[in-house]
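Margin note from the TA: students keep mixing up input and output lines. Inputs are the sequences; the output is the structure of the whole complex. Example:
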Amino acid sequence: MISPSIFVFAPLASAALFTALMVVRSRNVIHAGYWLLPCLLAVAGLFGSLEAHFFVVVQILIYAGAILILILFALMLTRDVMDPKQRQTTKFAPLAVPLCIFVGLGGALMMARAPWPAIQAAAPGPAEQTKALGLGLIGDYALPFEVASLILLAALIGAICLAKAEKEPAAPEPVIDLRGEIELEESVSAGAADGH
Amino acid sequence: MTANLTHYLALSAALFGIGLYGVLARRNAIAVLMGIELMLNAANINFLAFWRFLAPNSVEPQVYVLVVLTVAAAEAAVGLAVVLNVYRSFGTVNLDEIARLKG
């Protein structure tokens, strides 16, 4: 019945919230991309405080490893169009602020007022948990597993088709290597001379 | 002092709100995608908090988190491919300048 300690939760939670704010508030999108890294790592730490060991690793590998790299690459490929000095928000931003405060704080207050039961039981250890998840994925939850793999395959093909250049560059003119031809002719004539 | 389910749910709601701001207010399409990632992370915290506090012996919440992660990866790949395509044909990734549907 071990609840996660508040002394683990509080620093991780404040780090996650602060870095998330920096992600959406940074004027420079490259900085926003880099702020996303500590945010995702703090979320991985929160998963750790919940004893979801497998998902700590998955979060670091997939989010901090793969998705973040993809985002940073896209930022670098489109870097020249986004000057940090120009406006970074749409004209709806003043409307979005109260809406998001309402959703965030309202949701948080609503969650805080609901009577949640105390922690039920100790979590299984890392090995048992991961084993149960793996058995679940090929047993009771095979359908979501297969659907997820289908989604990944579709995304793979779709991303390749979308990112491919629409117009193929004009094929370069075939370069005729004259030296090769001359050597060929010479060898042919030499062969002809030998034959005679 | 222990953190209970309320703390995690409140944190997740706040993180979701921040991500929503990123989605609604940012001009750069890639920054919008980053906001979506924050919202998906908030959902994952929610799933895992419910798993830990209410049903630690069930596998189902973890399967949900795995599916969310898969969808997040697919969304990032396809979304960024679309953004690169938009950048190629419009020369910008600012969402309020991309208003043409055809031609």
